[in-house]
Amino acid sequence: HHKRVQAVSSAVSKVEAQREVLRVAALIAQISGGISSVERATMEKLATGFGLGAGAVDEAIGEAQAVLDG
């Protein structure tokens, strides 16, 4: 699991693309019945690997929820 997170973290270098990866992850998690603690932890590891700030995960989750709320 950790190696996969590292692979994604190193493969996506542009900040906007990194934020988009987090948004998509949040959207998939929301659709699958809400964001579990494991999903959130994985998103936090991605954000850390990307070098994004602590608020990046909450921001991505908020944006995903806004999409679903229409």
Structure description:
This protein has 70 residues and is mostly helical. 79% of the residues lie in helices and 0% in strands. It is built from four helices and no strands. It has helices at 2-11, 15-31, 37-50, 56-69. The longest helix is centred in the N-terminal third of the chain and has 17 residues, at 15-31. The chain is globular, with a radius of gyration of 11 Å. The relative contact order is 0.20. The mean pLDDT is 94.
Largest sheet: none
Percent helix: over 70%
Number of helices: 4
Radius of gyration: 11 Å
DSSP, total strands: 0
Catalogue the unreliable spans.
none
Mean pLDDT: 94
Provide a quick synopsis of the model.
The chain is mainly α. It has helices at residues 2-11, 15-31, 37-50, 56-69.
Helices and strands in order, then pairings?
Layout: H1 2-11, H2 15-31, H3 37-50, H4 56-69
Helix pairs in contact: 1-3, 2-3, 2-4
List keywords for this structure.
4 helices; 0% strand
